[in-house]
Amino acid sequence: MAQNRKKKIGLIGGGQIGGNLALLAIQKQLGDVVLYDIPAAEGMVKGKALDINQLSAVDGYSCRVTGTTDWKDVAGSDVIIITAGVPRKPGMSREDLLDINLKIMKDVAANIKQHAPNAFVINVANPLDAMVFALHKIAELPKNMVAGMAGVLDTSRFKCFVAEELGCSIRDVEALVLGGHGDDMVPLVRHSTVGGVPLTQLIAKDRLDAIIKRTREGGAELVALYKTGSAYFAPAASSIAMAESFLFDRKRVLPAAALLEGQYGINGYFFGAPVQIGAGGVEKVITVELDGDEKAQLEKSFQSVKKTVDSVKL
Ligand code: LMR
């Protein structure tokens, strides 16, 4: 029966995030995975596929990974996660990657249009909000079938730092980061709680400010540590959370870069907001009520995204 067929997950980019995505998808048994990269990286994708399939035998996973350099193998994917592109190096901003990653995205988006136009497509490549904008336009994907992974990652970092600060279980931290995936992102302190208690009652302002700063610079902190690349474990887990919600119609409410059409006073740009992800892709964009200061912070974040997006030449 069609609804019982194994799902197919296309991973575009066989680097560190791609490898972790493949592993997580198999361990969670989300479906069969196709790990694609360009011919120069054939050994890398074929090697990762073989290695993970051998791991599957240890734990008895039934899903398989195929490493490929042929877009035809990606055809029919239910979900596609794009990590293709160049990571930044210490001292670089995500925006510094615009030209090089846009070139790569143009090719990826054209191939998605040709081979997998019905997939739910999640973009991880940076500068994230601009890349998802270009992807949407070039691949001509319906607005509900394309989103950027960032809010899940940024929110996860925020929650992690809060739990570390308090020495409490991360399971009890509820938080939300809105806005673009840049240094102006907006951790919503007023809306964040631990076990239902507002953060502001638990953490002194100077410590909270430090956590906000660390969250905003969370990607750069890892770039500085890794020196030759950027984060890969948490971005993979964040993308998989979105994919899983789509594949199994979980209808989770997750922050993601979605096309805004008037929400938050923004129209025609992909920007981080809480969205409901289910079998219909981005089924709903949820508007959070903001006070004056939060609105000003969000506007600053939007202006940064807008500047980059407006410079994109398709
Ligand atoms: C991240 O936040 O980890 C990614 O956007 C990668 C980067 O360059 O920071």
Verbal overview:
It is a single chain. By secondary structure, this protein is of the alpha/beta class. The protein is 43% helix and 20% strand. It contains 10 helices and 14 strands. The protein has helices spanning 16-27, 42-59, 98-115, 128-139, 151-166, 199-202, 205-216, 218-226, 233-247, 292-310; strands at 8-12, 32-36, 65-68, 79-82, 120-123, 146-148, 173-174, 177-178, 186-187, 193-194, 197-198, 252-261, 267-278, 281-285. Strands 3-2-1-4-5-6 form a 6-stranded parallel beta sheet. A hairpin with a 2-residue loop joins strand 10 (193-194) and strand 11. Helix 3 (98-115) runs parallel beside helix 4. The longest helix is centred in the last third of the chain and has 19 residues, at 292-310. The protein is globular, with a radius of gyration of 19 Å. It binds (2S)-2-hydroxybutanedioic acid.
Essential attributes:
tricarboxylic acid cycle; 20% strand; alpha/beta; binds (2S)-2-hydroxybutanedioic acid; 6-stranded parallel beta sheet; 3-stranded antiparallel beta sheet; single chain; NAD; 314 residues; EC 1.1.1.37; Malate_DH_type3
Oligomer: single chain
Label the overall shape: globular
Number of strands: 14
Bound molecules: (2S)-2-hydroxybutanedioic acid
Q: What is the averaged pLDDT score?
A: 97
Strand and helix order? EHEHEEHEHEHEEEEEHHHHEEEH
Radius of gyration: 19 Å
* Percent of residues in helices: 40-55%
Widest beta sheet: strand line-up: 3-2-1-4-5-6
Distance separating the two termini: 41 Å
